[in-house]
Specification:
heterodimer, A: mainly beta, seven-stranded mixed beta sheet, four-stranded antiparallel beta sheet, 11 strands, B: mainly beta, six-stranded mixed beta sheet, globular
């Protein structure tokens, strides 16, 4: 069974640009979450999507957005990039039981903003 | 509020020795679960082990075991017979229910280095 797939793995953008990251969850998983990981802030929750609806959101500015498609694939977008957006962006998927779901992560997308 | 505390920023262990990584948690929920993840330098978060709050026995997965002490609110990871490939960041995490849905909180991690 294929794991969580994230693309691209590495990318470099300049300040002011926008970026779109993609995530394909494990087959059968309908919940997809996004996290930002930086050395100073650790792992920060961005948002979670379930059946194309955002049902949880972290404390990030509106420049960070996401969406989920009917096949459960998800994208996150960051507009007007800032140097501080340089980070590892991790996507995770889980099944849709009410609780006790193990979340499985992808390999992450390393974003560098210059 | 839910909180995970990992007080060891870095740990060293000799190859083939056992090591314990500490994790304490704070929640007022009765139903919750605890995870440990390993993150090598490549970045991928690898799921290691899971313990539910109602599980009476400590979870084990190969060389990994979770020392769950509910009254102390601790969920320490024990790695037996350390290998060089165990060198990585280790994160403790907890799910609770927030707004009717599962929400996961992570600790800041412990960097483990295995010495030959």
């Amino acid at each position: 069974k294929a794991g969580v797939t994230q693309t691209p793995r590495y990318l470099i953008k300049t300040r002011g640009q926008q970026v779109t990251l993609s995530c394909s969850p494990i087959s059968g998983h309908r919940s997809v979450s996004w996290y930002q990981q930086t050395p100073g802030q650790g792992l920060q929750f961005l948002f979670e999507y379930f059946s194309e609806t955002q049902r949880n959101k972290g404390n990030f500015p509106g420049r960070f957005s996401g969406r989920q498609f009917s096949n459960s694939r998800s994208e996150m977008n960051v507009s007007t990039l800032e140097l501080g957006d340089s980070a590892l962006y991790l996507c995770a998927s889980s099944s849709d039981r009410a609780s006790g779901n193990t979340i499985y992560f992808g390999e992450g997308s390393w974003l560098t903003v210059v | 509020a839910q909180k995970i505390t990992q007080t060891q920023p870095g740990m060293f262990v000799q190859e083939k020795e056992a090591v314990t990584l500490d994790c304490t948690y704070d929640t007022s929920d009765q139903s919750y679960g605890l995870f440990w993840y390993k993150q090598p330098s490549s970045g991928e978060m690898i799921f290691l082990i899971y313990q539910g709050s109602y599980d009476e026995q400590n979870a084990t997965e190969g060389r990994y075991s979770l020392n769950f002490q509910k009254a102390r609110k601790s969920a320490n990871l024990v790695i037996s017979a350390s290998q060089l490939g165990d060198s990585a960041m280790y994160f403790c995490a907890m799910w609770t229910i927030s707004g009717g849905y599962q929400k996961v909180t992570f600790g800041i991690g412990t960097k483990l280095q295995v010495i030959p």
